Amino acid sequence: MNIQVEALTHIFANSRVQRTALAEINFGVKSGQFVALIGPSGCGKSTLLRLAGDLLHPTRGTITLDGRKPPEMRAAHEIAWMAQSPALLPWLDARQNVALAQRFMPVNRHPRLTVDQVLERVGLSDAAGAFPFTLSGGMQQRLALARLLALEASLWLMDEPFAALDEISRERLTTELLDLWQPFHPTVLWVTHNIYEALRLADRILVFSPSPGRIVGDLAIDLPRPRSEANPRFQQILAALRTALGSTANAQVAQ
């Protein structure tokens, strides 16, 4: 799914105060790209995902998905969402949670994978009959990934989905996410505060300024996967990313 964002501004306001979360954002994403969004807390990264997913409506500007507005693509079930909380249905077992996701697919779209195949891909075949409360945090996020995969959406919106996990589980799921993404290549917008995670996963990294959020860096990651920190080019991009993030930190202090 192609994404085009033009002069996008979003202001949160009530009767007492208003706050500009995003200010005049402009960028485009080609179909199949994995794009990481990084920047200080409160810079509008999650707000951008909500605008793309039709959970918010912009104050000004436009965001189009394959030339159409987010409400149309959401209605067509072309958008899938994954956040820190897996938001599983506790009264359904793992297989039923995934099967429910497939029920929301348009009637003219036939699933590429069965529910059991999806569970196998995320390593949950043995837990198909387990209820969410019996699963560890890592396994719950695997199940959320299975549901994401089962939807077969063209756009994945992922808001720090592994942030609450321990480092070992996070590393493992980051690697496995690429294995799930690469066969189908949906477009991904991935919010993170972890620079190494961004460098391992993304084709591009968009760096955001402190609030009001603006894009102050756009780095292309021209490295094959899997990526090694020992690669000199990895270190060059890491240095450029640290410089871009350093400029946002200085701006935040100046404010």
Provide the fold topology.
Elements: E1 3-13, E2 18-29, E3 34-38, H1 45-52, E4 60-65, H2 70-75, E5 79-82, H3 94-103, H4 115-121, H5 137-151, E6 155-159, H6 167-181, E7 187-191, H7 195-201, E8 204-208, E9 215-220, H8 232-254
Parallel strand pairs: 3-7, 3-8, 5-6, 6-7
Antiparallel strand pairs: 1-2, 1-4, 8-9
What attributes characterize this protein structure?
single chain; 255 residues; alpha/beta; Rossmann fold; 2 domains; six-stranded mixed β-sheet; three-stranded antiparallel β-sheet; 8 helices; 9 strands; disordered C terminus
Structural description of this entry:
The chain is of the alpha/beta class and 255 residues long. The protein has two domains: 1-78 and 155-172 and 183-255, Rossmann fold; 89-152, no CATH class. It has eight helices and nine strands. The strands form two sheets. A six-stranded mixed β-sheet has the order 5-6-7-3-8-9, sandwiched between helices. Strands 2-1-4 form a three-stranded antiparallel β-sheet. A hairpin with a 6-residue loop joins strand 8 and strand 9. Mean pLDDT is 92; it is low at 251-255.
